[in-house]
Amino acid sequence: MKVVVAYSGGLDTSVIVKWVKETYNAEVICFCADVGQEEETVGLEEKAIKTGASKCYIEDLTEEFARDFIFPIMKANAIYEGTYLLGTSIARPLIGKRLVEIARAEGADAICHGATGKGNDQVRFEMTAYAMQPGIKIIAAWRDPKWTFRSRSEMIKYAHDHNIPISSTTAKPYSMDRNLLHISFEGGILEDPWAAAPEDLAVMTCALKDAADEPEEVVITFEKGTPVAVNGEQLSPAALMRKLNAIGGRHAVGRIDIVENRFVGMKSRGIYETPGGTILHAAHRALESITMDKEVMHLRDSFIPDYARMVYNGFWFAPEREMLQAAIDKSQEFVSGDVRVKLFKGACHVNGRRSEYTLYDHDIASFEAEEVYNQQDATGFIRLQSLRLRVEANSKQHKM
After folding, report:
1. Which residues are catalytic?
2. How many C-beta atoms surround the C-beta of residue 90 within 10 A?
């Protein structure tokens, strides 16, 4: 039997490699996806081999992640439950896709992940895998009847007993997951939704008290809804995200404290940092405000809750998400131009937008004297719009 394991080199996946090898008498191949987590990958292959793997793939997927996953959800203005920019959710289908592709290339019998049975990631990984290869065998370690671990201390002991190289010695006060779009902090000391998060709980952004004392203006250029430049500098998708993350980070932009509804049914409290994504979201909406037709915008906006829920729940490769994406991409045909934002003390303020495709007509919108709009035309418009209201009001008066 040959199994491809989603591998990070941390305690859980290091134990899983050894456990899969012994429990299933399997050859284990590891796969580590670099989606911008900024973790050191030097020595990771050697560690995987020492742990029991026969091979370890380490791949930089940051450009594909930004281009094919982050930017499409930004075009959709996708926000889950009004606050969450889907930072963790959107990375999982890419990792799952590549996991299956490697399994195919290696002729593997199964794939394996270390997502827990309480979280969303197990669903996202497995929905992706089944969409790509319906008959694939999946080993979900934490749900496997042969998995006997119930605590980190048990796993640490197992690692020591089997000479598995790990750096963990005690339980973390919370869990972290980072990629090019955001970082999440969950669990442990954050599980009380009334307890304020520690002030030093920040990685991608500085604490608000340490934010720059002077505001900074940033100009973002879009082509058909896709960001392509920052302050006039053309950048690759991943480089653009890194630049905006750095700029937003020093102004403490993009930090939220939320309680969200997981797909599996429970509520979960999390602290998220999304500096670059927060800037892009505000800028993109601002550009749409002058380039997108009113009815197209309202129709597209009606898609947002369903689209965000699809991404959050792991349905990235589902036909309904792809159908909505096609409509959203069509809506972005003329969303090209520049947006200027001002960043200061955790806030992102739009203060300028321009486009060669602007629908904003100064002559029509102006409150000054003009010849192109006859204000008396509004009389008939209002009477027609109010017709049903007047009919209803008359009906009620006759019954009183």
Report:
1. 12, 92, 121, 175
2. 26
